[in-house]
What does this fold into?
Amino acid sequence: FFFKQKTAYEMLRSLVGSEMCIRDSLYTFLDEKRKAFPRFYFVSVADLLDILSNGNNPPKINKHMPKIFQAIDTLELIEAAGDRPTAKGCLLYTSDAADDLLCVDLGGRGIIQKK
It folds into this structure.
């Protein structure tokens, strides 16, 4: 028996088709995550992949906070032995007029004291 070998062009077409299928599946997955948490619509695909892949490591996600939440620069995390870190407070971007205030009201969600 003689087996027909695929030409480089046929192999390339097959690989491109596979890549398109993988990309479509990835975008479907990311779209589901964005529908579950709409603030992810403000983040690029690369940043969203970084956030999702480091979901169990909050300090690595901290660099993405300004992209997800307006006016939040970083979260201050408290690490407890054996537990996941929890947010203690956050560093806010503020206007010059608000710089003189000692705290910032988050519109019913609580008040964050400035340091």
Observations:
- Residues 111-115 have pLDDT under 50 and may be disordered.
- The chain is about 40% helix and 15% strand.
